[in-house]
Model the fold of this input.
Amino acid sequence: MIRALKRWDNLLLVGLTSALLVGGCNHQESDKDVMAKVNGYKILRSEVDKAYQRQTAGAPQKPLLEQDRSMRLQLLQQLVSLQLYLQKAEKLGVMATDEEVESRVSQVKAPYTKEEFAKKLQDMGYTEAEYREELRHRATIEKLFNKEIGSKVTISDADIQTFYNQNKAQFNVIEPQFILAHIYVSALPNVPSASTPGKAENETQAYEKIKMILNRLDSGEEFGELATKYSEDPDTAPNGGALQPLPESALKERDTATRDAILKLKANQYSDIIKITNPATQKVLGYRIVKLIGKEPAGQRNLSDPNVQQFIRTQLRNNREQLLRQAYDEVVRDGAEIHNYYADQILKDAGQK
Done:
């Protein structure tokens, strides 16, 4: 049985929201400086440049011209979407409050001294004002989606029963499964999915961060809460680190360190720090802590099983939210006046070759 994870796909691209700070001023810009307009709001070249620099920082080689333009076009499209969401949120009165922003900032700052936090921001190319504004935009858009999409999704008992009846074979487990969660910290720099200053940029920082997390676990803090706050696995962190159930046979295919750690655990126990390396080069990729939530026997899972019900409810909610999100994006764009001058320029340049 596969556990679905709730998340907003493509909600934010790293660094884009803080780039909106640049365009918000709209100083004496020339026509060449304006790459797009959204209901009269000008998205400037400097905004796209800043997002582009963050996205390509540390890249081993400079992109080709076509790759460069394609990336800038995608970034610009993301900025257009973000501006549409922010304008909609302002109209509906669901902007993030100062208190909500401060709460998020405090969570990010918690593991670091003032100097360490400032260094993290500098390494990522942020000022503190830019980062605070990015958190404000993220919180605002989450509130917008919760109001406009999440609040409109309801899953009834009849819906769950119907899904189970139509997919009963899916809940027949042919071999025992390990139910796991993990907290992962990457030792690689510039991982796009890790957008907070808590992102480790090298092996030393990664080990320091995972050691801090282990110490807090040993002090009695809840595993899922720490995973949500600090794990750098974007697919599992929002769900408290929960992984897809691992069949017993698949455990043999895991790296030796992780496999040995899991086999030593009893239900609700977590491992020590596990080093993850590239088997070919032995380069350290990151560190993880794994928790064994339990082990499920083989056999048919009945609808009376709370885990089955929760899986179905999550699956149905994700499907419906995804559909509503697609429709919402279309409606928001249909009601907006958008001019993408950069796209026009790309087509114009192609016609002159």
